[in-house]
Amino acid sequence: SEPCSEDMGNGTNGSSYRGCQTHTIHGHICKDWSVAWPDQDSLDEYGLGEHSFCRNPMGEKETIWCFTTDPGDPNVTWEYCQPLDENLPSKGLSKSSCTIKACKLGEATCSETRDRFLSMYGGILDKYNQLTEDIADITASCDKSKGDINSEKGTEGTRLREAEGDLADATKQGVESEQEEQQATTFDEFLKKEYAHQMKECCDNRNGYMSQLCGLKKIRAHLYQASGQEAKITDCEVSEWTDAPCSASCEGGTQKRSRSIIAPPVNGTQCPPLEMERECNIHKCPIDCQVGVWSEWTACSAGCGGGVRTRLRHVTVEPRYDGQACPEESETQQCNPEDCNRDCELGDWGEWSGCSKLCHVGHRSRRVKVLLEAKGQGTCSDPDSEERLGFEECNKETCMSKLSSDRSYLECRSKVDVVLVIDGSGSVTKQGFDQSMNMTSRLLANMAGADVEVGVLVFGGPKTEEALDECSGHLTTTPDWWTDCGMRWVTHLTRNVRRAMTSTLQWPYRYGYPGSTSLISMALADAKTELEGGRTDASSVVVIVTDAQPMSPRMTAKAAEDLKTSARLIWVPIGPTDPGTDEVVKTWASKPWQDNIVKVGDINLLPTPDTVNAITASVCPEAM
Fold it and tell me: In the 8-state DSSP scheme, what is residue 287?
């Protein structure tokens, strides 16, 4: 037989391929052409015969293919193939020797060097942007502190002015009170002098009248004696007046007065009137003070830490004529005595959720409810911290143990919108990209019978500094998504999963291997935008297959955090990665990271059932 040649040749869609590949892109074993090909007479013409090597007779399909013999998947009767790796020995061939090439810069070497310098440039931009944000944060913090200080100064100034005003009012009232007291003292002294003068004058008049009366009585006695009459004389004596109550308590009334005869007159003065009326209580009636209802309480003077609030009521009637004085017209009480800084108060743990995965180790989760939110400078642990979010493992069995003996793959049964993001950067290598696309088509096959909408995005990155600035939004010009940024949708969200699978299989032959830089942040942002047009009643999931070597780790972290607010983010790191990268990817994935990272150290293991089932179990909690 002719030696194998993995060269696709010049034939249409690989029709002249005469290699020795005997497996499909998903690992199915090819069927012998002498058994499967219906036109036995044309076996030799198309390079067919008694062998099971992949071919593309007449170039009728997109690339080389073969009939399959897999009894576990009767739906797959044929499938595409890829040529064998030329560096690996094929059946019947000896391993080629390695020839050390001369140190010359070829096109491929220049491309790799360019991509590395662009990645370095991206890292410099990352650091520059980080420092710019740090400066902005420090400036904002300083401005806030300055504003707080100025605000506090303004508040204290207002309080000082209010206190000075209160002091001035109190001083004025004190001076007026002293003046009123001096006037009252002077008037009191005048009244006392006037009272003493009037009492002395009254007493002198009374004594004068009594002296005159005494003289008249003596003269009368002498006249009786001179006329020879008996000098028996008795003047009428009456008691003191007895006053009846006044008919009115104020505004003028009448009062009856009466007195009785103590000694009747004998040749003396007749009795005076025994009854009389006089005015009484002619003073004005007192008017008591009257006030209105209390107003509403004012706002507290402080939001916390102790303040005061006030309410007022106005005088509707002023007191007069010794009426009852007015009560307090204002009332003040303390308010908001609680501390301005308060930590949040947490409740008890909630109930456990269902298991996140059917197999391959899932997790149940539970959360702690916040009973009282933090206040001021008080703190509260992050909602996703261990203090508030707990996990425990469940469904630790392997996915293969869930399958019957005639099946190799899980089938998704969840209602989910999925965007598969495939890394086509130079660091992934063409082999890694091809295996990623093979795995993607197999994963889509697992979802073909479910209530699933799928989208597939291939991404690389810019190949020039100007394109990087355009794709990063540093320039006002609009970049071309594919030519400048290396982003292209294999298919947008669609219910036709089988068509998406076919488009994924055909993509490498239509557009090739991007082999550029890795702008992961832009790919994640594009996936988030795509899911915004998804179904509201379906779960949203993004699966990114990558070697996790972004141009901008900082922007990747930001894009990942932004995406995780509306969708689950599952990472499939491929190829060997260092421990530092593994730890960073854990922070980029949704929590718990154990459910949302499927690490594949060997890119050749990507399309295998174990890998595909592990990703299917992560994407679809309901699988079978």
Answer: B
Q: How confident is the model at residue 70 (pLDDT cuts 50, 70, 90)?
A: low
CB-based burial of residue 54 (10 Å sphere; 0-12 exposed, 13-18 middle, 19+ buried)? buried
pLDDT at res. 535: 95
Neighbours of 63 (CB within 10 A): 21
Hey, is 529 helix, strand or coil? helix
Residue 169's contacts (CB-CB under 8 Å, 6 or more residues apart) are none
End-to-end CA distance of the chain: 45
Question: For residue 252, is it left (φ>0), alpha (ψ between -120 and 50) or beta?
Answer: left
Task: For residue 568, list its beta bridge partners.
Answer: 541
Distance of alpha carbon 144 from alpha carbon 153, whole angstroms: 14
Which residue is listed with tokens 């609030």? Answer: 309
Q: Which two tokens stand for residue 598?
A: 């499927």
pLDDT in tens, 325-334: 999 989 999 9
Strands 452-459 and 487-494, sheet pairing: antiparallel
Given a cut of 50, is residue 91 above it in pLDDT? no
* List of residues 6+ apart from 481 with CB closer than 8 A: 487, 488
Return the H-helix or E-strand segment holding 366. strand 362-372
Residue 87 has pLDDT above 60, yes or no: no
Which residue type sits at 27? G
**Residue 289 corresponds to which tokens in the numbers above?**
């003070």
568-573 and 539-546 beta bridge pairing: parallel
* Number of Cβ within a 10 Å radius of residue 21: 23
Instruction: Return d(Cα 123, Cα 118) in angstroms, integer.
Output: 9
Give ∠ CA 244-250-251 in degrees, rounded to 5: 120
Contact 529, 559 (CB under 8 A): no
Q: What tokens were used for 202? A: 């009254």
Pairwise CA distance, residues 153 & 421, whole Å: 55
Question: 3-state class of 419 per DSSP?
Answer: strand
pLDDT: which is higher, 110 or 290: 290
> Measured on CA atoms in the order 161, 166, 167, 171, is the torsion positive or negative?
positive
Query: Which of 4, 85, 14 has its CA nearest to residue 55?
Result: 14
| Residue 623, C-beta contacts closer than 8 angstroms, at least 6 positions apart | 358, 359, 410, 411, 412, 413, 414, 616, 617
- Look at residue 368 in the predicted model and tell me its pLDDT: 94
Q: Nearest-CA neighbor of 393 among 353, 355, 352, 358?
A: 355
Give me the chain's average pLDDT, please: 85
Q: What's the average model confidence in pLDDT over 66-82?
A: 75
Highest-pLDDT range among 5-19, 164-178, 221-235, 518-532: 518-532
Where in 380-528 does DSSP place strands (E)? Answer: 389-394, 416-423, 452-459, 487-494
CA distances from 81 to 18, 50, 62 (A): 13, 18, 10
How far apart, in whole angstroms, are the C-alpha atoms of residue 8 and residue 473?
41
Read off the pLDDT of each residue in 347-374 and give the average, rounded to a whole number: 91
pTM given for the model: 0.59
